[in-house]
Fold:
Amino acid sequence: MKPIRIHREADRELAEAQEWYHERSEAAAESFALHVDHAIRSIRQAPLRWPLALRGARAFVLDRFPYTIFYRVRSDHIVVTAIAHQSRRPGYWRHRK
Structure:
């Protein structure tokens, strides 16, 4: 399995989302974290399984939360480029490498 690297902006997006859920419900924040962890593990196990999105990135849509994890498969690793809310500025992350 290829290692996963998380773009610093995607890491910031994750922290902001986690904080937002935590301010409203500790249970929701915990569930969100579990869903993201599951998504990352699934991406690592089968990176080509999810559909292509913009500019060669792939998209893993979370089930119970309005977020999509965008990532790119490189020769030696996988890079998560965005953990994007589905209702905010589509494609804003495209310039990230």
Notes: The chain has a mean pLDDT of 92. The domain at 4-85 is CATH 3.30.2310.20 (YaeB-like fold). The longest helix spans residues 26-45. The beta strands are 4-6, 58-61, 67-73, 78-85.
